[in-house]
Amino acid sequence: MNKDKLIIFDTTLRDGEQSPGASMTREEKVRIAKQLEKMRVDVIEAGFAAASNGDFEAVKAVADAIKDSTVCSLARALEKDIARAGEAIKGANSGRIHTFIATSPIHMEKKLRMSPDQVVEQAVKAVRWARQYTDNVEFSPEDAGRSETDFLCRVIEAVIDAGATTINVPDTVGYNLPHVFGALIGTLRERIPNSDKAIFSVHCHNDLGLAVANSLAAVMNGARQVECTINGLGERAGNASLEEVVMAVRTRQDLFLCDTGLDTTQIVPASRMVASITGFAVQPNKAIVGANAFAHESGIHQDGVLKHRETYEIMRAEDVGWTANKMVLGKHSGRNAFKTRLSELGIQLESEEAVNTAFARFKDLADKKHEIFDEDLHALVSDEQSTQEQEHFKLLSLKVCSETGETPHAKVVLAEGGMEREAAADGGGPVDAAFKAIEGIVNSGSELLLYSVNNITSGTDAQGEVTVRVSKGGRIVNGQGADTDIVIASAKAYLHALNKLHSKLERAHPQV
Ligand code: KIV
Ligand code: ZN
């Protein structure tokens, strides 16, 4: 049977980035976008171009770098936002503008302070403005999940007439249940007279843990685009997770009348890259990409899998990219091998000087850790890029003493705007002492919300990747650091976060 194509629209770089602390640099966005392109994702939502100059530059950089996927920018239903989005995607081989306005009674009355008639009028204008830049225009009635069906039909019919080619139905606050949401998509497709002129899409949030179930129910009812994110990253409880949607459709081809064109073996590498760049670790029991997703612990299961794999496995680990860590480089690898591997991984360093610096760091790492894996290279480049950004405070040296029966003590030397400063502190452990010493110099007054360490590869010589999340005056930022010494990785991560707080880069939020 000829199956329909299910379009995968990835919004890790836009909605995913709206998770507090998950902001990404332009270079990081380009790296993730290249991995998504390698996975054959159809549409990459690269950001909200009007949010800030940085966001505009990031969307533009992704649009310029990506050749095979469509690159999209979000824009509110405002002429200036749409112009900015149009400008940012100009260089794309295939570009899309995604414009939205809220349609639920509560959003129209309390947030927009607009009447339903005004909302319809603005939505139509927005689609017409967007069509001046591209024929590929997506429209979302924000908070559709709590909007009145009659009103949704009216808005959607009007925007399709105005030229919208994709209609995305968002469950913005994750309020829906699968049978209700599925039925809504069926009703909209049936009742809207011109519904055959657009592709119906869904965008579900996970507040009740139902984002994937709601998306799949919508697909059963004719939606042919799903908006999702790697690892389910996104506002609050996140968005529908790409890997779960894609593998559910692939695994249950007996039930779905469509399939995606994704290379699913790229899923685990994408998951690892996003976790390492954002610092949002993946829980071990997470479906598809969690470390335990294919691990059979019980004797009965192990025995069954050994006798016949399908007794307990519905998917093959290798089909989603769980291959054993590959040793790619070592102590004796040369600059050329290093550069080639980086480019195979889609990592482009800006200059020969940047390659030299990264190569020197690689050699240092190879001295401490004999086998260097792809994950190590990603961490090394992320670490290098984060030390280059806004480095107001720079770690010059750190010494920690930790001994049984003694109070841990740390002495730190930082450069602050060129001046060398030092401080020492005791702490409950070496990391606590190091953070107290750093705070003794920086005096940030920030609150530490999260501290986590993950090993990048296995073995006691693995690099530890540390994530910290700090908040001050309502701003929340994440910092990452990687090193084979986890106290040093921790200090780097803390300084990365403090540097971000110090830089005070502000951006608008599309939905506020
Ligand atoms: O959740 C939402 O409604 C959104 C829209 C902007 C599509 O992210
Ligand atoms: Zn959203």
Summarize the structure in words.
With 512 residues, the chain is of the alpha/beta class. Helices cover 39% and strands 21% of the residues. Strands 2-3-4-5-6-7-8-9 form an eight-stranded parallel beta barrel, surrounded by nine helices. The protein has a three-stranded antiparallel sheet with strand order 13-14-15. A three-stranded antiparallel sheet has the order 16-17-18. Strand 4, helix 3 and strand 5 form a beta-alpha-beta unit. The mean pLDDT is 92.
List keywords for this structure.
512 residues, 4 domains, eight-stranded parallel barrel, three-stranded antiparallel beta sheet, 21% strand, globular, binds 3-methyl-2-oxobutanoic acid, binds zinc ion
SSE order and pairing:
Layout: E1 4-5, E2 7-10, H1 26-38, E3 43-48, H2 53-65, E4 70-76, H3 79-88, E5 95-102, H4 105-112, H5 116-131, E6 137-142, H6 149-162, E7 166-171, H7 178-191, E8 199-204, H8 211-220, E9 225-228, H9 242-251, E10 258-259, H10 267-278, H11 299-307, E11 327-330, H12 335-344, H13 352-368, E12 371-373, H14 374-388, E13 393-401, E14 409-416, E15 419-426, H15 430-442, E16 447-455, E17 464-472, E18 475-483, H16 486-503
Parallel strand pairs: 1-10, 2-3, 2-9, 3-4, 4-5, 5-6, 6-7, 7-8, 8-9
Antiparallel strand pairs: 11-12, 13-14, 14-15, 16-17, 17-18
Zinc ion is lined by residues 15, 170, 172, 203, 205, 235.
Task: Provide a concise account of the structure shown.
The chain is 39% helix and 21% strand. The chain is of the alpha/beta class and 512 residues long.
| Strand residue content | 15-25%
- Count of individual domains: 4
CATH class of the largest domain: Alpha Beta
Note the gap between the termini. Answer: 45 Å
Q: CATH homologous superfamily of the largest domain - what is it?
A: Aldolase class I
Q: Could you tell me the number of beta strands?
A: 18
CATH architectural group of the largest domain: Alpha-Beta Barrel
Largest sheet: 8 strands, parallel, barrel
* Overall mean pLDDT: 92
Query: Which descriptor suits the 3D outline?
Result: globular
Q: Give me the side-by-side strand order of the main sheet.
A: 2-3-4-5-6-7-8-9
Helix content: 25-40%
User: Which small compounds were modeled alongside the protein?
Assistant: 3-methyl-2-oxobutanoic acid, zinc ion
Q: Rounded to an integer, what's the Rg over CA atoms? A: 24 Å
CATH-defined topology of the largest domain: TIM Barrel
Structure class: alpha/beta
Low-confidence stretches: none
Tally of DSSP helical segments: 16
